[in-house]
Design brief:
Two copies of one chain form a homodimer.
Chain A (H helix, E strand, L loop, with lengths): L12 E7 L6 H17 L1 E7 H5 L7 H4 L2 H11 L6 E5 L4 H10 L5 H6 L1 H10 L7 H4 L1 H11 L4 E4 L4 H18 L8 E4 L28 H9 L20 H9 L3 H13 L4 H27 L2 H29 L6
Parallel strand pairs in A: 1-2, 2-3, 4-5
Protein name (chains A, B): Tryptophan--tRNA ligase
EC number (chains A, B): 6.1.1.2
Enzyme class (chains A, B): ligase
Chain lengths: 341, 341
């Protein structure tokens, strides 16, 4: 609120989160987790364990969500997200998020939702057709509720999620127009500095169920196997042959994880010229990933051995989140003239 | 729970309510209010002042809702609904209703909602087209949340609302199947004993804005004018002419409100035969309605002169409702495996 704020914490608030539908993997690590560990020192950061959003396409298979909530919390803590700096909270346990969603759903038309490019693509890829659950079509409204409930102004996203930011800001402007004063803040995207990490087979989005992702809980053996099976250059049959670096997942992972970037460039040059085998590049990558994941895995194991403690972390963050979001809900209720008591 | 329940109160629970988009009128009086006054002695009855549902087609005009909440509460009390017997509560102030709606929305497809005949008709009559607000298309889900949140098993409805009961029971069955035990109760309709009262012009649905409804707050003069302007038989030009009773709004109202049914039948016979003028029938109806409305209007005026008291009634009922609905929410959260703390 003043220029003398300690630790130079920015006034911008960050909201981010994950659908609790699986353990987190290396894609999350480079795409968001690393960034969050840094951002928590500069910003008021909230991470939502999005169990409700996870249910929007798992309503009939809720175990997929419920069994992963503590996994995701353990992943957060294991990579260094600090609950003293970052509010880690559970979406379904914060009533204001549902209440705001109900208010906002009166301000967004069905056709507007159907035009949302992100949702359009997801509907196509999930093969919903007309059987799309209402909760899935309307989840951009629920995201707007999440963002505004925390007064968040900076939203870490991939560029495929920019339509979500636009939808949120449309709702913010409508609300402010109804209230006749700026009760909600518009948000802006914080684009991820790295592009999406490919799956180990180079084909699909990473997913635990497809077996093409390296989880943060991966064992030594799982890491070894995943790297060994990694997609490289199918035309690179003999060590002497020149090989392609583009689309070669081993090099993409080396780019993402190997600390010495100069060395990676040297490897690429050698691979392109011929004379560098996949066995060698994979060995380099594997040892790098083993070194990265080992301490995370160990911290994670310890965390998962005391689930009561994980629940406590989530509960404490959620209590804090309930306090914060109640204030925005009251402002929205006032805008609609419904705060009678 | 046992056969020795005091006062022979049924174990069936009733949920009913009104969209808070206008003052209540004689149509509500015969269609639901009278019935509620009786039912409150036999049943555990909850009346929801449905401000959130009112917003589903008034999101950009929330005053239409907010300005009518206390009006509706005053109408209830003025006709004899007793807050000691009936829980009168405010929909937007009960978080569990929004939270349950979010859970249920993952179990209902968009195409199922679009097939709902009641919603279909309303979309047509409101001329929404594709600009239908998400909250409006999904309001049957929200109604299912309302009904189940209160464990309601008897729902007073007109026959045009039977699809709402069916939609609710579909959700109940899905939930019970997910929970693998009967955590929610199916409900059944309690059909209104009287058919819908026509508007005074005999043309449309009664509505304050169309000036074709007699409000429970109508002044002596307003009642007189409304009855004088009432639609009768346009072919009945002279007193001596035979007149038509069917579609003659004056007789429909006499049927609905005049206590002496035998006398009304005599009047009908005379009107059909010729020799009974509209002036006479209207005078009889007017005096009957003046007598009915006068004490309601007086109680209503007194109630509206102390809005703090009305807020208090609503607040007390809402607190009770919050206690009741929290239990069902917990059961649903448990079914989804999300009750972590």
């Amino acid at each position: 609120m003043s220029a003398t704020l300690s630790n130079q914490v920015s006034q911008e608030k960050i909201l981010t989160g994950d659908r609790a539908t699986g353990q987190l993997h290396l894609g999350h690590y480079v795409g968001s987790l690393q960034q969050r560990v840094q951002l928590q020192h500069q910003y008021h950061q909230t991470i939502l364990v999005a169990d409700m959003q996870g249910l929007t396409d798992n309503g009939h298979n809720p175990k997929k969500v419920s069994s992963n909530i503590l996994n995701v919390v353990a992943d957060y803590l294991a990579v260094g997200i600090d609950p003293a700096l970052t509010t880690i909270c559970l979406q379904s346990a914060i009533p204001a998020l549902a209440e705001l969603s109900m208010f906002y759903s009166n301000l967004v038309s069905i056709s507007r939702l159907e035009r949302n490019p992100t949702v359009k693509n997801e509907i196509k890829s999930k093969d919903f057709g007309r059987s799309i659950p209402a909760g899935f079509l309307t989840y951009p409204i629920s995201q707007a509720a999440d963002i505004t409930a925390f007064n968040a102004t900076l939203i870490p996203v991939g560029d495929d999620q920019l339509p979500m930011i636009e939808q949120t800001n449309e709702i913010v402007r409508k609300l402010n127009s109804i209230a006749n004063k700026p009760i909600l803040k518009e948000c802006k995207p914080l684009l991820s500095p790295v592009s999406r990490l490919p799956s180990t087979d180079g084909k699909n989005k990473m997913s635990k169920s497809m077996g093409n992702a390296i989880l943060l809980s991966a064992t030594e053996r799982e890491i070894k196997q995943a790297v060994r099976a990694m997609y490289t250059d199918p035309g690179h049959l003999q060590i002497e042959d020149p090989g392609k670096v583009e689309g070669n997942v081993v090099f993409t992972y080396l780019d993402a994880f190997y600390p010495d970037k100069v060395y990676v460039e040297e490897l690429k040059a050698q691979y392109r010229a011929g004379g560098l085998g996949d066995g060698k590049t994979k060995a380099i990558l594997e040892s790098c990933l083993q070194e990265l994941i080992q301490p995370i895995r160990q911290r994670r194991e310890k965390l998962m051995s005391d689930k009561g403690q994980l629940v406590e972390v989530l509960k404490t963050g959620t209590e804090r989140a309930k306090d914060e979001t109640g204030d925005v809900l009251n402002r929205v209720k006032n805008a609609f003239g419904l705060k009678l008591f």
